[in-house]
Design a protein that fits this description.
The chain is 41% helix and 15% strand. The protein is α/β, with parallel strands linked by helices and 275 residues long. Helix 1 (19-30) packs across helix 7 (161-173) and helix 3 (77-90) packs parallel to helix 4. Mean pLDDT is 94; it is low at 1-6.
């Protein structure tokens, strides 16, 4: 496809069925913008490990929302991001918005690889999502009534996926955000005991918090068939590097970020935690 026939309105949303990607796609669609979902099961599948899927997924796209699974800090991620970004720009993609990790040294390498592509880039750095408790790996523990995690009494400024999506869409559609890096957080710091208390209030049942050792958590991951590297991500909470509030949501959206209690109330209303 030549650049003259390119649909600059088309955005490839990688991970378009995931927590943030689904929301980004919905918002772009609501604005009347064309969206192509990039996922393994999409009409045009997108698979990070299968380079042959990249071209068809990018065909006709003028922009892309880039998320990397399982995490940008994992081995090989930065190389894949660099190769993809170079390929996308060569295909005529102009704007790339990268979902990155706040406080993750490994993620910075991915950010730099994306920037070197020559695209109009924006980096959105986030810490742990509220939705991890309702749409991801903390859902089963919440349903079971106990969060057994290697987080001690550390605190985290959990950020809402709806806020992330709003920032990402602004970055994809507004030139003012080109070549900007935004760090996002929620409005307050919460320990996992605080989270358990919030979830208990929202669900009307007792959700407990049990601090466990990192070794015990790795063993639990292995037993569940999950990558043990997930345990490493908890060091981002335990060492306190993200135990501060940042103002990316306010800067981009001119409003306050969504509080965990509002998230918990709304999620509970969907019945996701009814079991």
């Amino acid at each position: 496809m030549t650049h003259s026939t390119k649909n600059e309105n088309l955005t490839l949303v990688i991970g378009g069925t995931g927590k943030t990607g689904r929301r980004v796609a919905d918002r772009l669609n609501a604005q009347g913008r064309a969206v192509r979902i990039g996922s393994r099961k999409a009409e045009r599948p997108f698979v990070w490990e299968e380079r042959s899927t990249w071209g068809p997924a990018l065909e006709g796209a003028g922009s892309a929302y880039v998320t990397y699974y399982p995490d940008l800090a994992f081995p090989g991620a930065s190389e894949a991001i660099g190769e993809f970004s170079d390929f996308a720009v060569a295909q005529g993609v102009r704007r790339l918005v990268l979902l990155s990790g706040r406080g993750e040294e490994g993620a910075v390498a991915g950010e730099e690889a994306l920037k070197k592509s020559g695209a109009d880039w924006t980096v959105v750095r986030c810490n742990w999502f509220n939705q991890n408790f309702s749409e991801s790996f903390f859902l089963e523990p919440v349903l079971a009534g106990e969060l057994a995690l290697p987080t001690g009494d550390a605190v985290e400024p959990f950020v809402d996926a709806d806020d992330i999506a709003d920032v990402a869409v602004a970055a994809l559609t507004d030139d003012r955000h080109v070549h900007a890096t935004y760090e996002l957080s929620g409005p307050r710091l919460l320990s996992f005991q605080d989270v358990a208390d919030e979830l208990s209030r929202a669900t009307g049942r007792t959700i407990g918090y049990l601090p466990v050792s990192a070794d015990d958590y790795r063993a639990a991951l292995a037993a569940a068939g999950e990558p043990q590297e997930f345990a490493d991500l908890f060091t981002l909470i335990v060492d306190g590097r993200n135990a501060s509030l940042v103002d990316g949501v306010q800067t981009v959206l001119d409003r306050e970020p969504r509080d965990f209690s509002a998230y918990a109330r709304d999620a509970a209303a969907t019945g996701v935690w009814n079991g």
